[in-house]
């Protein structure tokens, strides 16, 4: 879970104008960032942050801890994102099978060559992290939602299952396919290839069966969710298979990029929105708006205030 939500939950319990204003600022950043990662359109993300926070104000004092706060906030934001008038939330709904996402021998050879190029290759990849958001937006919405909630918003699989109302096993399957897909889309973008749906290709016939089994369970392995004995068996295979090592490193790099991705709201917009929401929350609690009143109000586009 994002540390911002833990901090916001603690601040709200203090019930002082200063703490409440800081808490609402943290919640605002969380909702905006999540919305931007899902829709890719700044205006929609700002509208979502304003609407979600306004709808949440009367509930914040009733949410007992950070887990309850996260469940409420992401559920409401998820529902709002599905009603956005812009953004790629209504396309790319093709289901992706593992055979479409597992690398063939040609791609594995390219990964091995890239791994041998050393630090210079890593530096080039670091400079192109801005392509990550494009790769994420290419994902089908169910996969994108799980990837953003797990690898970017730092929620546990069990929390995501609650928010999406699905089984934990479904979350894990979607997460693995989302990671494989975003890795593949990143490779296409880095190679300068135009946007396209992933094309079904023949299965990887030249690789040992152990490789295919490993590729199908990599997220469980990387997230330490496999039994110790199975983990040892997978590790033994990896240590003797350079192609698997190259692919795992490439997938781990894609996951690390996702985990480090942040999108910030415009500072002026954020300040005005925080002022408006803080004053309204203090009004609901009948607390004098000592801090919030010192900042200018903003016209509420969606809330109708």
Automatic annotation (TrEMBL):
<dbReference type="InterPro" id="IPR013249">
    <property type="entry name" value="RNA_pol_sigma70_r4_t2"/>
</dbReference>
<dbReference type="Pfam" id="PF08281">
    <property type="entry name" value="Sigma70_r4_2"/>
</dbReference>
<dbReference type="GO" id="GO:0016987">
    <property type="term" value="F:sigma factor activity"/>
</dbReference>
<dbReference type="InterPro" id="IPR007627">
    <property type="entry name" value="RNA_pol_sigma70_r2"/>
</dbReference>
<dbReference type="InterPro" id="IPR014284">
    <property type="entry name" value="RNA_pol_sigma-70_dom"/>
</dbReference>
<keyword id="KW-0805">Transcription regulation</keyword>
<dbReference type="InterPro" id="IPR036388">
    <property type="entry name" value="WH-like_DNA-bd_sf"/>
</dbReference>
<feature type="domain" description="Putative zinc-finger">
    <location>
        <begin position="211"/>
        <end position="244"/>
    </location>
</feature>
<dbReference type="Pfam" id="PF04542">
    <property type="entry name" value="Sigma70_r2"/>
</dbReference>
<dbReference type="GO" id="GO:0006352">
    <property type="term" value="P:DNA-templated transcription initiation"/>
</dbReference>
<dbReference type="InterPro" id="IPR013324">
    <property type="entry name" value="RNA_pol_sigma_r3/r4-like"/>
</dbReference>
<dbReference type="GO" id="GO:0003677">
    <property type="term" value="F:DNA binding"/>
</dbReference>
<keyword id="KW-0731">Sigma factor</keyword>
<feature type="domain" description="RNA polymerase sigma factor 70 region 4 type 2">
    <location>
        <begin position="130"/>
        <end position="181"/>
    </location>
</feature>
<comment type="similarity">
    <text>Belongs to the sigma-70 factor family. ECF subfamily.</text>
</comment>
<dbReference type="InterPro" id="IPR013325">
    <property type="entry name" value="RNA_pol_sigma_r2"/>
</dbReference>
<keyword id="KW-0804">Transcription</keyword>
<dbReference type="InterPro" id="IPR039425">
    <property type="entry name" value="RNA_pol_sigma-70-like"/>
</dbReference>
<dbReference type="InterPro" id="IPR027383">
    <property type="entry name" value="Znf_put"/>
</dbReference>
<dbReference type="Pfam" id="PF13490">
    <property type="entry name" value="zf-HC2"/>
</dbReference>
<protein>
    <submittedName>
        <fullName>Sigma-70 family RNA polymerase sigma factor</fullName>
    </submittedName>
</protein>
<feature type="domain" description="RNA polymerase sigma-70 region 2">
    <location>
        <begin position="27"/>
        <end position="86"/>
    </location>
</feature>
